[in-house]
Amino acid sequence: xxxxxxxxxxxxxxxxxxxxxxxxxxxxxxxxxxxxxxxxxxxxxxxxxxxxxxxxxxxxxxxxxxxxxxxxxxxxxxxxxxxxxxxxxxxxxxxxxxxxxxxxxxxxxxxxxxxxxxxxxxxxxxxxxxxxxxxxxxxxxxxxxxxxxxxxxxxxxxxxxxxxxxxxxxxxxxxxxxxxxxxxxxxxxxxxxxxxxxxxxxxxxxxxxxxxxxxxxxxxxxxxxxxxxxxxxxxxxxxxxxxxxxxxxxxxx
Length: 253
Description:
By secondary structure, this protein is mainly α.
């Protein structure tokens, strides 16, 4: 058999087709080989045409082959990158990296601990301001009246119209055009000197402040924002809706 013929006989399927053609006497060996080669070319062409959406345009064929092979190319690229990273890691001196990792971890832990300490300090400061407001505004009042004073303070903080902190609400000062000076939102904050809170009244005020601050109990007065002593009749109270009178205070919404 000539070498040019044997080179064309690539697989067993084509050999089988040629033997059938020669055995049937339909053609000689040369024609059979040519027929098998022509059939193989048609099969390949048909596959390409199917890939190209039966259009046969070269640009369509190229795009479809490119997108069909894209996942494998990406997978190969990622594998090569990962292999390079591993090889680079094994080849490098790891002591500086380990030192930097340990140092960064210590720094992160220190920062988180510092933030927790500051948050705890702010919380205690706000509780102290709330307890002082309850003590100086409502000590000697019924427990319900002390809760109501604490609720007014927290409601102002949550309203968005006052300071965003409890201490800011307690010590807030507003301009009074009649007195032509800044006046404290709570009268006791205008005194230069005050006695140190002590005794049972201070412990009770702190307990009330904690209960209201952490919302451990249902509000005594829902939405209370203002109050004044019963022996006073301030002008601002005319436009407010009264909620209740508890002890020596009248509360408004």
